[in-house]
What we know:
Distance between the termini: 22 Å
Mean pLDDT: 77
Number of domains: 1
Shape: elongated
Order of helices and strands: HHHH
Number of strands: 0
Radius of gyration: 18 Å
Low-confidence stretches: 1-13
Amino acid sequence: MQAGAAAELPGGSKSELGVSKIRELNSYSKTQATLILASRLSTTPENLMNTLPVLMQELVGFFIIEAHVLRTMPDFRSQRDVDELWDEMRKRIVEIMGQGLKGCAEPEVFLESKTNVLLFVQTLEVRSSAY
């Protein structure tokens, strides 16, 4: 049995304790992702150039770990769980960037934001193709 997988009972069903633990850890993962974004909710044009690179790095790291867990422990978390978490985080990233760029008239901030997003996407594409 893989570490973190629910214990199999005769007949192939997972124990209630194992299923409960998996649900608890999945909930923890969602909470962790939410905390990464929570401190950036008050992003402004003045702090976006400092906030965005760190946010993108933290999210890349988070989803690289999620992809590794998904690949190495398929009974622990489903692709659907990771996809739903990604969809939620993607929407929140757009909100944070929208708030950070709202009312901004500095082309440098827009260009730097675009560069950060492109690096973020390229990193995730390279990592996903490695799996």
